[in-house]
Specification:
Blueprint: H1 9-18, H2 23-41, E1 44-47, H3 49-60, E2 74-78, H4 106-113, E3 117-122, E4 134-135, E5 139-140, E6 142-143, E7 146-150, H5 156-163, E8 169-174, H6 180-186, E9 189-192, E10 212-217, H7 220-230, E11 261-264, H8 267-270, H9 274-286, E12 292-293, H10 298-316, H11 318-323, H12 330-340, H13 344-364, E13 370-374, E14 387-390, E15 393-396, H14 397-400, H15 406-409, E16 415-421, E17 431-438, H16 443-455
Parallel strand pairs: 2-3, 2-8, 11-12, 11-13
Antiparallel strand pairs: 1-3, 4-5, 6-7, 8-10, 9-10, 9-16, 13-17, 14-15, 16-17
Helix pairs in contact: 2-3, 5-6, 7-16, 10-12, 10-13
């Protein structure tokens, strides 16, 4: 019989709803798995055992438990989400000195209203500015599939916790690729919704004009369940669109038939290593598409995202940069200081490029419904890697992990990252992700394609064999 910690969220919830298992049993097994694997992985910065067990008792006594879509499902959140009673660290040392959050973030409350149970907060790059989760303050989060390698970032704890079997769902954030990069390197499914689709109320910002929140999971169905439970506008988040929820769970079985699917060329081929290209080509072949789509000036769009992130991110931290520069993570401190010195004219031009690029990309969705692209240039690098060789160039490793994700989030498109295995013949135990990208507000199409690929056995998120 499968242990509860090995089950997906949908399976746990079904068992709790029909009484064949209890929420308490699921939480106890989850906490035991965390205790057994944390010394190796280092995904969590806080484990909320008492809170989780108390909430599990409430779910087991819930008179309308059969109506809870996520009944008894343990989950964890990147530590930039407010959690009542904890300071919202955002991966930093400085925020330890702030008052504990008075209440949970809105998305946490929505998941718990659906019956899910929060068990802890997860490690990340400081202030979400990074792609590796090599955090000086809280330690490096290791990739469960190879403990010598990074988990990706900035939501590295989210990807690692799923891959290690610690929880079946997690919540992260994605500004330039921080859901898609860890999903790719850790071999999980991840959803970055359309910009403005999910409210950010109660989360620590990085770049307000680019920040997205979204889930990680071991199955596409779990992504959809979690996403549906979190939908709905918030008047407290001016960036959240006032759109009615559009439920996607019931549409996963529609498959990819009838959808116009393309593969992104140009930048997205040139900046990918052989394993990334092999993953995309394998999925394209399975979907029966040879259509190549070219987006214009992708490199400029990526540069625009870089400048906007650098400038907006630095502005948030100017006071601390003046007073407590020594307390920042060294790498993020240097990036923030550089952002504080950017000429306003550069940032203004970056915004012009961003809006021009969004209009041009919108035209491409007149001829296709979904496009495929690599999520990362390569499989997970070894911890401490400083350089990557890509397209004949020696590039800095950390920022280059976002080469293929930044141009997409820059214009707010919805993306499901799907994990593919065995694409690097010398490292067959490592996954790499493919982005399934749709037009704004069409999360349903990206999820349909992802579910179709999963059902055919081309994408999966197995739990790492840690012990």
């Amino acid at each position: 019989m499968t242990a509860l910690w090995q089950s997906d969220a949908a399976g746990i919830a079904a068992g709790v709803r029909d009484g064949s298992t209890s929420a308490r049993a699921g939480v106890e097994q989850c906490l035991a798995r965390i205790a057994a694997t944390e010394p190796q992985v280092n995904a969590f910065t806080s484990v909320l055992a008492d809170r989780a067990l108390r909430r599990a008792g409430q779910i087991d006594k819930h008179t309308r438990r059969s109506e809870l879509s996520l009944a008894g499902v343990p989950f964890a959140v990147k530590n930039l989400f407010d959690v009542a009673g904890l300071p919202t660290l955002a991966g930093s040392k400085i925020e330890r000195d702030t008052l504990p959050a008075a209440r949970d973030a809105l998305l946490v409350r929505r998941l718990e209203a659906a019956g899910a149970i929060l068990v802890g907060a997860l490690n990340m790059d400081e202030y979400a500015y990074g792609f590796t989760t090599e955090n000086t303050h809280y330690g490096t989060t290791r990739n469960p599939h190879d403990l010598t390698r990074i988990s990706g970032g900035s939501s590295g704890g989210c990807g690692a916790a799923i891959a290690a079997g610690q929880v079946p769902i997690t919540l992260g954030s994605d500004t330039n690729g921080s859901i898609r990069v860890p999903a790719s390197l850790c071999g999980t499914f991840g959803l970055k919704p359309t910009f403005g689709r999910l409210p950010r109320t109660g989360s620590y910002p990085f770049v307000a004009s680019l920040d997205h929140l979204g889930p990680f999971a071991r199955t596409v169905a779990d992504l959809a369940l979690t996403y549906d439970a979190m939908q709905g506008p918030s008047h407290d988040d001016p960036g959240c669109a006032r759109r009615a929820p559009e439920r996607v769970t019931g549409e996963l079985g529609l498959g990819a038939e009838g959808l116009r699917i393309g593969v992104l060329g140009g930048w997205f081929r040139n900046m990918a290593m052989p394993e990334a290209l092999a993953a995309v080509d394998a999925l394209a072949q399975a979907l029966g598409t040879t259509r190549l789509i070219e987006w214009p000036e992708v490199e400029r769009a990526r540069a625009a995202a870089f400048l906007i992130s650098n400038s907006e991110g630095a502005t948030l931290h100017l006071n601390d940069l003046r007073r407590r520069a020594q307390d920042f993570e060294p790498l993020s401190r240097d990036r923030f200081l550089a952002g504080a010195l950017l000429p306003a004219a550069w940032v203004q031009q970056a915004q012009r490029v961003r809006h021009w690029f969004a209009r041009r990309v919108a035209r491409s969705f007149e001829t296709v419904d979904v496009v495929l692209a690599p999520a990362t240039p390569c499989v997970a690098p070894v911890i401490g890697t400083e350089w990557l060789e890509i397209d004949g160039k020696r590039l800095p490793a950390r920022p280059s992990l976002g080469l293929l994700t930044q141009p997409v989030s820059c214009i707010g498109l919805p993306v499901v990252t799907v994990p593919v295995w065995g694409m690097n013949p010398t490292l067959p135990h490592l996954p790499i992700g493919v982005q399934v990208i749709a037009a704004p507000w069409r999360e349903d199409l990206a999820l349909r394609v992802a579910a179709h690929l999963e059902a055919r056995g081309l994408c999966s998120a197995p739990i790492a064999k840690l012990n």
